[in-house]
Amino acid sequence: MNATDKTTLPAPVQLLLEAAQRAPSADNTQPWSFSWDGHALHVGFDPARIEGHVFTPESRASQLSMGAIYENIQQVARTAGLTLGGASPSSQVTTNLRMVVPRLSLSGIARDEWITAQRAHPVFERHTNREVYTRDPLPNDLLGRLEGLQQDSTCVKVFSQRRDIKRIASLVRLASEARFRTRELHEWLYGSLRFPGDGMPTDDGLALETLGLPPGGGAMLKALTNWGTMSRLNRFKLFKLLALMETVTFQQAPALVAILAPKSPEHGHQAQLFAAGQLMERAWVAINEAGFAAHPSYVITDQLDRLEAGKVPLELRATVGELQRSSNGAFVEGGHALCVLFRVGRAKREAVRSRRRPLHAMLSVQAKGVAA
Ligand SMILES: Cc1cc2nc3c(=O)[nH]c(=O)nc-3n(C[C@H](O)[C@H](O)[C@H](O)COP(=O)(O)O)c2cc1C
User: Is the CB of residue 64 below 6 angstroms from any atom belonging to ligand 1?
Assistant: First the structure.
């Protein structure tokens, strides 16, 4: 059976799938597939959605997302009183999670009512806000809480001094300049962007209205679709202007929050990235729950990973080499390196929330589930 009717799923499975579906992914690619075998819930990567894309299942970005899925599932399960079996990901099993979901007898409450009640959990409210933030400082209790978060050997580092924020924002600018000069990344971005009325599916990717662009920003983005246009304008330093626009919001943020993982690419590296994803999600949920906004930036990590993989074009190697040296000074602590950076603050406007693909498009059911 390959049923996609959600009413065939037991209530806890439906709930955990919805929690998983809310996890963040780079450019909202949602590269996951879910399956339910009547006993255990499996989460993996959908090869069709990964193929030909910048991020493979083993990449840092994909592992961060997988860790976030697991964190969402765990948090919601805990609140709902569900103890998951077989859930611990081993160091090698981070591209396929398996969780045994217990049966739940719902006495005196309807299945849909129970699910709706559980959706009040803060993981369902976590989101990206790319609008402008005020300069109001973050309360000390939130700063302290974030700094205290840990998962395995991964940790959180908070920057709230202007001098530090400025220094890190200058790294975002450097990385961003390199990004806007890289054809592959340009094409990847435009494959993810969703302009109104362009006929692309709107339940994945980066919808224009979620980007918090200033007036005219959408038209400018559209005009730069073609790499030929972009590279011609780059001769007049357009990449510097675009990078500056991206960086200003980070420079003005009251705090930057870095998720760090051990630098060593040795045994257990994947598991550490997965743990960093759990930590990222935990921090992000806590920030939003406290009424503050968060906007991740992956641009530094991505450029450094590309440098290590030999993917940085020759003409950009000096720039990214400089980024690497400066990043070592800014983030590396006890052998840690940056996984993802956030600006955090009070947003001047509510964010438009990004959409999700329908569950039935990502789910296969191998056995008849019994509705709880
Ligand atoms: C590993 C990772 C990297 C991301 N990098 C960026 C980024 O560089 N810039 C950005 O604006 N959003 C970034 N995002 C946020 C995603 O675009 C966002 O999570 C996704 O569109 C879903 O939206 P939501 O967070 O509101 O649920 C990143 C998310 C993840 C998980």
Answer: yes
Measured by CA distance, the residue closest to atom 28 of ligand 1 is: 26
pLDDT for res 3: 43
Q: Is 179 in the pocket of ligand 1 (CB under 6 A)?
A: no
Q: Give the three-state DSSP class for 371.
A: coil
CA distances from 231 to 173, 180, 228, 351 (A): 18, 9, 5, 31
Question: 28 C-alpha vs ligand 1 centroid, how far in Å?
Answer: 6
Q: Is 299 in the pocket of ligand 1 (CB under 6 A)?
A: yes
The string of pLDDT tens digits covering residues 193-215 is 999 988 887 899 999 999 999 99
Ligand 1 centroid distance, CA of 109 (Å): 36
Pairing between β-strand 150-151 and β-strand 193-194 as defined by DSSP bridges: unpaired
Rounded Cα gap, residues 239 and 228, in angstroms: 13
Q: Please check whether residue 81 is in contact with residue 117, taking contact to mean a CB–CB distance below 8 angstroms.
A: no
pLDDT higher than threshold 50 for residue 121: yes
Encoding tokens for residue 291? Answer: 């009424």
Residue of 18, 22, 28 to test ligand 1 pocket, by largest number of atoms within 8 Å of CB: 28
Q: Indicate if 56 and 119 belong to the same structural domain.
A: yes
Q: Are residues 82 and 177 in the same domain?
A: no
CB 29 within 8 A of CB 55: yes
Ligand 1: which atom is nearest the Cα of residue 297? 8
The reply to whether the predicted model has a pTM over 0.85 is yes
Range of the domain at 330: 140-345
Lookup: tokens for 133 = 């933030």
Same domain, 233 and 251: yes
CATH label of the domain that carries residue 297: 3.40.109.10
- CA distances 260 to 158, 204, 281, 284, Å, are 11, 27, 13, 14
Query: Do 311 and 361 reside in the same domain of the chain?
Result: no
Q: Whose CA is nearest to atom 9 of ligand 1?
A: 297
* High-pLDDT (> 70) share of the chain, %: 92
Gap from CA of 61 to ligand 1 centroid (Å): 10
Q: Give the number of domains in the chain.
A: 2
Residue 185 · residue 224 · CB < 8 Å: no
Look at residue 311 and tell me whether its pLDDT is greater than 90.
yes
